[in-house]
Amino acid sequence: MARRLPPLNALRVFEAAARAESFSAAAGELCVTHGAVSRQVGQLEAWLGHPLFERRGRRVVLTAAGRAYLPEISAALDRIALATHEQVRSTRAQIVRVNAPTTFALRWLLPQLSGFQLTHPAVEVRLTTSDEPIEKLGDDCDVAIRGSEQKSTGFVAHEFLSEVRLPVCSPKVLEAHPIRTVADLAQHTLLHSATYPGLWAEWLAASGHAGLAARNAQQLDHFYLTLQAAIDGLGVAMGPTALVALDVQEGRLVFPFDGPALPAWRYCSYVRHARIDDPAIELFLAWLRELGQRFSRSA
């Protein structure tokens, strides 16, 4: 049997106006004009065949019929809103919780993540950062990314990105003091990271200049600070090729040398066996592998 219903928009406007006993307040709540509220209420009253408000100058007051009608309509609209919320919630973005090292997240994952979200708008990636062993992450992490081998009992691991390390600097550093040979580094400041203190010594030894003394050395406590210092022209850093790839593409950094290239991280994703068949996680992992192929470089 077909339901005989008044105009639903008119009901919504009536409910807002009746709650406040004000057409102006309803207009503000619904982002419409005072006249639009008045017309919708008038349409509903005409449909019902009796008034819901008494007009007293610029004020409106509910009639007895309006007072009886308001709680029924409010409850019905509440039920519609709740049912709609549940429908939206059930189809809303599936969440993939990703944990990655801070430098990797800042320098590689975050700059690329908008591409994933545009392609997969129904999947929400929630990113946290740490270097903790994956076993300590608990159930609050769906995908862990690490650049060193982890004990993977209970996890499915996939390598998706490899990189090497090369000296890297801002173009303005080269304008001030060109670097044509390794010996030219003696005129520059070498940037060191406290977390990887031996990189420059290792690279200089591999290049045959183990005894080279730079003009200056500056140490920073985090690797991402070292890379930012290189971008800002403070000196020459040892740059992981994947983590500086976008900066090189966009001209913020350059590689003065093609080699020797020191092996760096081989990044892997780790997912618990129980979660590996989750469709949202599968989409994220497939995206990681495809992107990693474009940025990977081996020594």
From TrEMBL:
<keyword id="KW-0804">Transcription</keyword>
<dbReference type="InterPro" id="IPR036388">
    <property type="entry name" value="WH-like_DNA-bd_sf"/>
</dbReference>
<dbReference type="Pfam" id="PF03466">
    <property type="entry name" value="LysR_substrate"/>
</dbReference>
<keyword id="KW-0238">DNA-binding</keyword>
<dbReference type="GO" id="GO:0043565">
    <property type="term" value="F:sequence-specific DNA binding"/>
</dbReference>
<dbReference type="InterPro" id="IPR005119">
    <property type="entry name" value="LysR_subst-bd"/>
</dbReference>
<feature type="domain" description="HTH lysR-type">
    <location>
        <begin position="6"/>
        <end position="63"/>
    </location>
</feature>
<dbReference type="GO" id="GO:0006351">
    <property type="term" value="P:DNA-templated transcription"/>
</dbReference>
<dbReference type="InterPro" id="IPR036390">
    <property type="entry name" value="WH_DNA-bd_sf"/>
</dbReference>
<keyword id="KW-0805">Transcription regulation</keyword>
<dbReference type="GO" id="GO:0003700">
    <property type="term" value="F:DNA-binding transcription factor activity"/>
</dbReference>
<dbReference type="Pfam" id="PF00126">
    <property type="entry name" value="HTH_1"/>
</dbReference>
<comment type="similarity">
    <text>Belongs to the LysR transcriptional regulatory family.</text>
</comment>
<protein>
    <submittedName>
        <fullName>Transcriptional regulator GcvA</fullName>
    </submittedName>
</protein>
<dbReference type="InterPro" id="IPR000847">
    <property type="entry name" value="LysR_HTH_N"/>
</dbReference>
<dbReference type="InterPro" id="IPR058163">
    <property type="entry name" value="LysR-type_TF_proteobact-type"/>
</dbReference>
